[in-house]
Write a structure and sequence with these properties.
With 282 residues, the protein is of the alpha/beta class. It folds into 3 domains: 64 residues, no CATH class; 154 residues, Rossmann fold (3-Layer(aba) Sandwich); 52 residues, no CATH class. 33% of the residues lie in helices and 20% in strands. The chain has 10 helices and 13 strands. β12 and β13 form a beta hairpin. It starts with 7 loop residues before the first helix and ends in a 10-residue tail after the last helix.
């Protein structure tokens, strides 16, 4: 953390709420109160201030997360529409086409890759970024098998194939014969996109992105999947606050049991009268 939000209790509360905001991708107003008698509302949470200062503070927490990547394969109207729509949703768009087609791609503000470079690109991503990645093969029969073979070599969040059911069966059958594991083949979603009655390339693109969101793989929800929200914690026996065990500054051992405290004041209160806070053997 950089900056100051109050004493030890406020700092720890805000730190944990910030981690949660990173996990969900949603901003939240954190209201720290001595009695926490106020009711939490949508977009806010009321947290009790248990330390001796008994102060009150409101902190607005807004996550700023890495952009998610979408790989769009193919030089087709659907591929182009999907790239445009995904850009509007703040995806990092990577267009993948055969090398001979590169000059024909509308590549403004997008990364361009040749088909032969796709596997190397995926291999070069850090694991968390690759696990959040969305890939849609929309080459519509030109190099579906080649692109899917490269993509399915890795664990990614979403793989869609724009093809008829009959064509998809042929593509997946060919990949099975090439040794692609069945579990990976079952990850391929076909027809790609929710059934919205889409007809035009733009409508199909929207239906595909709607499916990405609907199955719980939206960019913000997963961008912090590697963040540890619940480290090993001890409970301060004086104020009831969660304290990270790793690197805890204020601790005290009593009858062979180590207790963890959020601040020196809680530790001193406990040391002066342990029986007030925990049951001890006679």
């Amino acid at each position: 953390m950089d900056g100051f939000v109050g004493g030890a209790c406020s700092r720890e509360i805000i730190r944990r709420q910030a981690l949660e905001a990173m996990r969900t991708g949603a901003p939240i107003l954190v209201r720290i109160r001595p009695d926490a008698s106020e009711t939490s509302e949508t977009g806010s949470v009321v947290v009790p201030m248990t330390c001796a200062s008994e102060g009150a503070v409101d902190v607005y927490v807004e996550p700023h997360l890495p952009r998610r990547e979408i790989v769009v394969v193919g030089l087709t109207p659907i591929a182009e529409a999907l790239a445009r729509a995904a850009s509007a949703l703040d995806f990092d768009v990577v267009r993948v086409v055969d090398g001979s087609e590169s000059a024909d791609v509308q590549s403004e503000r997008r990364t361009m890759l040749s088909l032969n470079a796709l596997r190397g690109h995926l291999e070069g991503l850090e694991t968390p970024a690759r696990e959040r990645l969305v890939a849609v093969v929309a080459s519509q029969g030109h190099y579906d098998e080649i692109a899917l073979e490269a993509i399915l070599a890795f664990e990614v969040a979403f793989v869609g194939l724009v093809a008829s059911r009959r064509r998809a069966e042929a593509v997946l059958g060919a990949l099975a014969q090439q040794g692609v594991p069945r579990a990976r083949l079952e990850q391929v979603r076909n027809p790609a996109g929710l059934d919205l009655g889409a007809k035009t390339p733009a409508e199909i693109a929207i239906s595909i992105l709607a499916e990405v969101v609907a199955i719980g793989t939206s960019a913000r929800a997963e961008a912090a999947s590697d963040v540890e929200i619940d480290p090993v914690c001890g409970i301060d026996p004086v104020c009831g606050m969660s304290v990270d065990v790793d690197g805890a500054r204020y601790t005290l051992e009593q009858n062979g049991l180590r207790h963890y405290f959020c601040c020196a004041g809680c530790r001193e209160s406990f040391a002066s009268d342990p029986r007030r806070y925990v049951s001890l053997p006679s």
